[in-house]
Amino acid sequence: KLRLRGKGSGYKEGPEQQESNESLHLCVSAKDEIVYNSACSRVEKLLTSILLSILISQEDKENLLSLVLRE
Fold it and tell me: N or C: which end of the chain has fewer CB within 10 A?
């Protein structure tokens, strides 16, 4: 089970039905340690892929801006 929690998650907790004041985070849980470890590995790979995509996109933007400023 994956649950996005913390500030900005939209997940309402407790009797007050409010977001937690904790930083945004992803909770991973499973009934079996093997499944848990597999889920953590998959989440880590996915988040790494997303981060790399963002960094590559940012680098591409910076390269484009550099080219434009030279002209």
Answer: C
Can you list the alpha helix ranges (DSSP code H) found in the chain? 33-70
Tokens of 50: 């997303």
Per the CB < 8 A criterion, the answer to whether 30 and 8 are in contact is: no
Beta-carbon contacts of residue 4 (< 8 Å; ≥ 6 apart): 10, 11, 24, 25, 26, 27
Name residue, tokens 């998959």. Answer: 42
Question: How much is the CA Rg of the chain, to the nearest whole Å?
Answer: 19
Q: Are 11 and 24 within 8 A, CB to CB?
A: no
- Cβ atoms of residues 26 and 9 within 8 Å: no
11-60 pLDDT tens trace = 998 899 999 899 999 999 999 999 999 999 999 999 988 888 887 777 77
